[in-house]
Amino acid sequence: xxxxxxxxADASRAFREMTERNALSWCSLLHAFVVxxxxxxxxxxxxxxxxxxxxxxxxxxxxxxxxxNAKQCLALxxxxxxxxxxxxxxxxxxxxxxxxxxxxxxNGFAIHKTVVQSGWNDIPEVNNSLISFYAxxxxxxxxxxxxxxxxxxxxxxxxxxxxxxxxxxxxxxxxALFESAPETNVISWTAMIGxxxxxxxxxxxxxxxxxxTQEHIHPDDFAFGAVLHACASAPCLASGRMVHTxxxxxxxxxxxxxxxxxMDMYAKCGDVExxxxxxxxxxxxxxxxxxxxxxxxxxxxxxxEALAVYESMSSHNISPDEVTFTGLLTACSHSGLLEQGRxxxxxxxxxxxxxxKPVHFSCVLDMYARSGNIAKAIEMMEHYPEIVKxxxxxxxxxxxxxxxxxxxxxxxxxKVGDSVVAxxxxxxxxxxxxxxLLCASGQWDEAERMRRAMAEQGVKKSPGCSWIEVKGKVKxxxxxxxxxxxxxxxxxxxxxxxxxxxxxxxx
Length: 507
Known about the structure:
PPR repeats lie at residues 22-52, 53-87, 185-219, 286-320, 321-356. The protein is an all-alpha fold. Helices cover 69% and strands 2% of the residues.
């Protein structure tokens, strides 16, 4: 009982008072140490045990796996085999989950081989872990193959494959599996809601959440977190407030995971006061709570408040991570705090030993660009080419955009623009911004040549899009679209506003 309540000291006292102990006594105390995070005490007790069963080994393996120490978990497994014990299905599930946290799948392949050799490949729980493992490394074909070869599929089997497709962006296939599953539960619905949210299908995620409640499937904290992630991308705040009400009524609003998701939703929807109210109501804040509030102030242009959160965070002895510095650099970038931002960037590497990512460089480059020091920004990009050219990095595009908007010297923009086009020839961003920059500098022939190169590559410009919320309803406008209700009236209002702005009488 004390072990399940993670009260290791009480469990240890009860154990020491026992005059007679059996294997269950030792394993129960070992479990108490593991779930309480006292791995050193767990190892000391493990060494004292008169006999070590599979349960004892599995308990210690689980502790290392859950604490993120996958390498120690694999080393302990080798000791287990050398002691003469054979693994069971629980051992293999723990090992597979640990391998999913490693940087490459090689160890997981070896454990899969052990699964087959030991004859545990017919156990659904083991196969479910393998499906999740292969999904983690984007090896969806392997996951599907395991699922199709399973003789006995449980609801967890279907959930694992649904989640695998949803996480990798195959949302239509995930939806098809969800519809064909013989039985679903709250995990199935959460996987689909989270999949829609991650793939930008906000409306579908919200609709599925509503349908989930109508089907009398009660959402848990993870379900609320998933739908709030979708609400954070919604163009209006009404849906997020609706979900907040549901979470409050069901008692989940006080859960830390839900509270952090609520803060993120309110901040990204521009309601900083709502985010602050949620933040202040959290009694036991974790690093995510502090980062979310700091970042919420930063993205809404409230740099002083963001820096104040960092000061309070430091006074509570909370160590910052890479997300913390992303928020700090964003705040400094938006407010033009060049020197303070530079100090944060240097301390991030020298004091806190946090390795910079492209998002950190983007903030620093933006600070240099806003201060007019484009040459320093380019010098910094040339000094860290491995980060600039890393997958998903858009640093060059960000710098080119600033060159275009500020009408800087054409040769600087041309240098950056050529790099953008060469790096991503299939994207329209580099061609369009470089063409606009050339037009602004009067180089019409060069601009036309760039447009032709874009056409030869088969690249088309993405249409512009904007939206407006009126009385709780959102209307989307796409560039070139004529199918808008009362379009003539819309143009009439635009022409009137244009005339009034150009001919306004000064007060």
